[in-house]
Amino acid sequence: MNKIDLLYGFLIGIIAASLGVYLFLHFFTDYEIVEGFTILRGQGQLGKLIALGAILNLVAFFLLLKFNKELMARGVVLATLVVTIATIFA
User: Fold this and answer.
1) CA-to-CA distance for 37 and 21, rounded, in angstroms?
2) Domain that residue 41 falls in
3) What is the distance between the alpha carbons of residues 56 and 41, in angstroms, rounded to a whole number?
4) Helix 4-28 vs helix 33-42: angle between axes, to the nearest 10 degrees?
5) Distance of alpha carbon 1 from its chain centroid, rounded?
6) pLDDT tens digit string along 46-87?
7) 59, 13 in Cβ contact below 8 A?
8) Using CA of residue 29, residue 30, residue 36, residue 38, what is the dihedral sign?
9) Are 24 and 88 in contact, with CB atoms under 8 Å apart?
10) How far apart are CA 6 and CA 78, in angstroms?
11) Does the chain have fewer CB atoms within 10 Å around its N or its C terminus?
């Protein structure tokens, strides 16, 4: 049981969520990344944006399970919990 795999999974989850936020802002809004964060935070929509970005964690989770990387998949779940907590406070 290699604990570094948990850290790798956590990093994969954070990167996937960040990539999801970027892709959403790029394809579905007319804002740049910093401008989009500022405007959506002012409108109280930042939590929803972060939650939409975390959808890519589902893809990462199931891919890791498919390749029998259970500990990394647990790291993705941990990253999703951290993103959820951030969404509550955003």
Assistant:
1) 10
2) 4-89
3) 21
4) 80
5) 25
6) 888 888 888 999 999 999 999 999 999 999 999 999 998 988
7) no
8) negative
9) no
10) 9
11) N
Which DSSP state fits 30? S
Q: Count of CB atoms within 10 A of residue 89's CB?
A: 6
Tell me the per-residue pLDDT of 10-31, one tens digit each, with 9 for 90 and over. Answer: 999 999 999 999 999 999 988 8
Residue 19 contacts residue 56 (beta carbons within 8 Å): yes
**Nearest residue to 78 (alpha-carbon basis) of 22, 24, 3:** 3
Number of domains into which the chain is organized? 1
Spatial distance between the Cα atoms of 15 and 25, rounded to a whole number of angstroms? 15
Output the six-digit token pair for 48.
């929803």
- What is the rounded CA–CA span in Å between residue 35 and residue 25? 10
Token couple for 27: 């394809």
Q: What tokens does 70 get?
A: 């259970």
With tokens 């960040």, the residue in question is 18
